[in-house]
Amino acid sequence: MTLDLFAQPAGKEIIAPGACLLRGLALARESAIWQALQSVIAQAPLRHMQTPGGLTMSVAMSNCGPLGWVSDRQGYRYQALDPLSQQPWPAMPAEFMALAQQAAILAGFADFTPDACLINQYAVGAKLSLHQDKDERDQSHPIVSVSLGLPATFQFGGLQRSDKLLRTELQHGDVVVWGGPSRLRYHGILPLKSGTFSYMGTYRYNLTFRRAS
Ligand SMILES: O=C(O)CCC(=O)C(=O)O
Ligand SMILES: [Mn+2]
């Protein structure tokens, strides 16, 4: 008799209760994901948003899906229209949705239907300081985060900013999911080191899938 029912999927590392790292999960769909990503950013270009405090973010961002995350002098929020074009954000590509739902299921979140996907593009030196994802209305849904292109150091902390940080290198194709008791853990990305990743060039891309409404 085998214990397959209890087996973890290959490459699943539990990093905290309700949080796991699915190494290489996106690789099986990488060319479809890359094509879909290029189509989204052709419709809604990557741009450097302003923080409420007036700083320019080092990461360039765009969105797809019914809602998109935006930051400007008025604050952080989700909205249905791209402020650059006043048009709806591009639709969530089917391959994006399929990957996000597959990852959520593997992580133990069976009914995740994201309505927002934030796209982050990191050039050398770009970073995302330690923060919580807390602009979403219902935090019973997880965050699914997909890494593409150049590697980066991910910091994953606790519920207090000062809590000890786990540091791990995220590679092309890795997916991190955090929800449940880990949903509001602090996390961030250290400044990107220079490099070239075959077809994605000198960038790291990250897709974070959220249930915003
Ligand atoms: O780039 C990453 O891996 C993390 C992105 C993130 O935390 C965010 O967009 O809120
Ligand atoms: Mn975040």
Detailed description of the structure:
It contains two helices and 13 strands, in the order E-E-H-E-E-E-H-E-E-E-E-E-E-E-E. The model has no long low-confidence stretch (mean pLDDT 95). The strands form three sheets. Strands 1-2-11-8-13-6-3 form a seven-stranded antiparallel beta sheet, covered by helices on one side. It has a four-stranded antiparallel beta sheet with strand order 7-12-9-10, with no helix packed on it. The chain has a two-stranded antiparallel ribbon with strand order 4-5. The chain is globular and about 40 Å long. A hairpin with a 2-residue loop joins strand 1 (12-16) and strand 2 (19-22). The chain is an alpha+beta fold and 213 residues long. The chain has helices spanning 30-43, 94-107, and strands at 12-16, 19-22, 60-64, 68-72, 75-79, 116-122, 128-131, 143-149, 152-156, 166-170, 175-178, 187-189, 204-210. The protein has a single domain (13-210), classed as Jelly Rolls, CATH 2.60.120. Bound molecules: 2-oxoglutaric acid and manganese (II) ion. 2-oxoglutaric acid (AKG) is lined by residues 118, 120, 128, 133, 145, 147, 154, 187, 189, 206, 208.
